[in-house]
Write a structure and sequence with these properties.
Helix content is 36%, strand content 35%. The chain contains one helix and twelve strands.
Length: 218
């Protein structure tokens, strides 16, 4: 009987040891799993934070790119100066203008960029962009009504009329102002379209224009 008790005691002891070991192993596995889960959560949170930071940086880059482009365009516009102003020569008998041909304003006041030709009366764009043009002419009533147009490459942009009604030494004027996009090589000029063929000349008859804004690719 004493031997049997010893065997039972030993068996119980071994069983208890196995149970303790199994419990400890389960606790270790549980701890490892909890640690892995926590690590995964932390990784996900870190990735999400990085993705948010990347989106913020992308927005900042886009904003800076737009600002740099705007500054570059302003600098290019300031660097490229195109402007001209010219008027007709003085004549006691007035200046004869051709039939459907450019009116020549031969006295140049300003010609930044050199795009205006005082011999032909034609402005030729050497850069694409948005331009503004203006002309003003005056005639003597005795010379009859005259119709003057602002023309681009043969296409009429605007027409103005100086009436030839009234007594001698009675005057009327015609003016036009146009804002238009030009490509490189486009030609703009004032042109007699119909009516009389004589203008008063001098500073009363003038033609001017300037570059308002360059194209981004110009």
């Amino acid at each position: 009987m004493g031997a049997n008790k010893a065997v039972v005691f030993l068996a119980g002891f071994l069983l208890a040891t196995v149970l303790v070991a199994a419990t400890a192993n389960a606790n270790v596995v549980s701890t490892i799993n909890e640690g892995a889960t926590t690590s995964r959560c932390q990784c996900v949170q870190t990735i999400q934070a990085l993705q948010s930071s990347v989106r913020v940086l992308q927005t900042s880059v886009q904003t800076l790119t737009s600002q740099v482009t705007a500054v570059r365009n302003r600098m290019r516009s300031r660097a490229v100066q195109v402007a001209f102003s010219a008027h007709m020569a003085h004549s006691s008998n007035g200046v004869v203008v051709g039939d459907n041909s450019p009116i020549v304003f031969s006295v140049v006041v300003t010609n930044l960029g050199g795009a205006y030709n005082r011999h032909t009366g034609v402005f030729t764009a050497d850069r694409a962009g948005l331009y503004v043009f203006h002309f003003a002419v005056i005639n003597n009533a005795a010379a009859g009504t005259i119709h003057v147009a602002l023309v681009k490459n043969g296409q009429v942009l605007s027409v103005s009329t100086a009436e030839g009604i009234g007594e001698y030494n009675k005057y009327d004027d015609a003016t036009a102002l146009v804002t238009i996009h030009l490509d490189q090589g486009d030609r703009v000029y004032a042109q007699r379209r119909a009516g009389g063929t004589r203008l008063n000349g001098g500073e009363f008859c003038n033609f001017s224009g300037f570059l308002l804004a360059l194209d981004e690719t110009a």
